[in-house]
Amino acid sequence: MKDNGIYRRLCQNTQNxxxxxxxxxxxxxxxxxxxxxxxxxxxxxxxxxxxxxxxLVMNNxxxxxxxxxxxxxxxxxxxxxxxxxQVTDAADAIFFLxxxxxxxxxxxxGQHVVAAPILYQSALEVMPTAYLLIDGGKPTTVSYISxxxxxxxxxxxxxxxxxxxxxxxxxxxxxxxxxxxxxxxVPEAMITEVKQYCNLPLIIGxxxxxxxxxxGLCRAGADLLVIGNALETNPNLVFEMTKAIKKL
Length: 248
Ligand code: 1GP
Description:
Layout: H1 6-15, E1 20-25, H2 32-45, E2 49-52, H3 62-72, E3 77-79, E4 93-99, H4 105-121, E5 125-133, H5 141-146, H6 156-168, E6 173-177, H7 188-197, E7 202-205, H8 211-220, E8 224-227, H9 229-233, H10 237-246
Parallel strand pairs: 1-2, 1-8, 2-3, 3-4, 4-5, 5-6, 6-7, 7-8
Helix pairs in contact: 2-3, 2-10, 6-7, 7-8, 8-10
Bound molecules: SN-glycerol-1-phosphate.
């Protein structure tokens, strides 16, 4: 298995209490010039990671967009794939996501078996990640496509037990996602409780729109925030977002 230093960097920043920001680029929601603009803004703002992927992707542009990103910046690019079709070794690493909040065997282990031989031969760093879908106030593409129920937002104990089990199974990252375009981000109380019981890097995404909200989620215990929609429509928001979390 490859070590491109990505997981080590995530852990180091987490241990140092340095809050991190990732820009999520969904290949379908942007065109080439928007990708270029987002990557350039991310580089200037000091963003930590760029994620590329989506739960349902119609255009086969993942590889092309990563090449554009790589021309703009050397920020590590991590695949955030909705399916095995999005795997490309143009990126530096991949979240090997297991949808542990759901009970769909294909997304717990099935797709992983199909992807394993491809990943084995690729240059990607593979990061085993427990992916927990949290109810964000409306149905999202990921809940529909994954055919799985999200964890209710007012049941932090379910998230805690799920994250604990994932850590005991040897997963290396916990990712709580309210889903792209969620009305409500993951509740701060849930983040705090999960962080209390798990000492893995904690990623939070879905429905994050303002710097104030981002700061609150970091104070609650998030180590890395992921923002997609809000930056796709306004790339310059990345400057305020990084300022808000880096000063914590
Ligand atoms: C990634 O689902 C998030 O984890 C992205 O959500 O597009 O709402 O920022 P937004």
